[in-house]
Amino acid sequence: MRLAEEVWALGFTIAGRAARPRVERWSSAGGQRALVIAPHPDDEAIGCAGAIVRHKQCGDEVGVVFVSDGRRSRALGLGADEMARRRREEAARGARVLGVDWFEWLGLREGEWDPAQLDAPLMPLLRRFAPQVIYAPSRIDFHPEHRRVAHALARLLDAGQVAPALVRVVQVQVPLTPVLTNLILDSTAITPSLTDVLKEYPTQRASLGAAHRLRRYAACYYGAGKSIEEFWQLSAREYARLHQADPQGWTGGRFRSLRQRSFSDPLAYLIGWRERKRLKS
């Protein structure tokens, strides 16, 4: 499948040169507080590990909240309780590799919680930490748990009881695409750290190749480095407006992720294109 990846990378390079996209480049003045909301342990590594490392290099304080215990993963033939135990251990090791200042394991049983159960632990945390930047899950996703966390976070932000923050929507396997991406981070120099943290999630090894391909295709398209992380930056109010409705009623939910093998990668960018444009407008 390496040949297919090379072909797609060339296609993204050509498309980027033709489109000449204009996006903001990631930066931090230092002294900020950044919070990462990870629906599952490993979502922070796949979606924004480079941003976490760069925040720390800039002198920012970074916290990570792991919402669910990931027990429904069927990898390695493990039972639900054993999977949850292993993923908690993986999350702790990953946090150490990334050098975050603190992390919170909420451990809600995957697929068995409702938004009110997330309100109780997350609202006090948001008030106490008062993040200036929140890395948040997206509704541009096929995974119901990611969409539910996005909805629950939106409800809290919409309540207006936390300090205003910039929200950076993170892509996890399902690309935001150039339709929604308006902020990029060149993570080329951080690639060894990204590889190290992804290795701390052996139960999720099947997703590692897709994570690297997402970054590579972005680098080809934007013509910067060899590895790029993409974000959709919004105000907290805008994020709340997009995500506050019940996810069961969201339209255009048939998005596609990059799969383990690369031959079908372009479908992840094409499926749901019209819905992305609708959301942007």
CATH-level-2 architecture: 3-Layer(aba) Sandwich
Number of domains: 1
What is the helix tally? Answer: 11
Q: Main sheet?
A: 8 strands, mixed
Task: Look at the structure and give the CATH class.
Answer: Alpha Beta
CATH superfamily: LmbE-like
Report strand order across the widest sheet. 1-7-8-6-5-2-3-4
Point out poorly predicted stretches.
Answer: none
Portion in beta strands: 15-25%
What is the mean pLDDT?
92
Helix content: 40-55%
According to CATH, the fold-level topology is Rossmann fold
Describe this structure in words.
With about 280 residues, the protein is of the alpha/beta class. The chain has one domain (about 1-280): LmbE-like (Rossmann fold), CATH 3.40.50.10320. It is about 45% helix and about 15% strand. The chain contains eleven helices and eight strands. The chain has helices at about 1-20, 45-55, 80-100, 115-130, 145-160, 175-180, 190-200, 210-220, 235-245, 265-270, 275-280, and strands at about 25, 35-40, 60-70, 100-110, 135, 165-170, 185, 230-235. The chain has an eight-stranded mixed sheet with strand order 1-7-8-6-5-2-3-4, with helices on both faces. It is globular. The termini are far apart. The model has no long low-confidence stretch (mean pLDDT about 90).
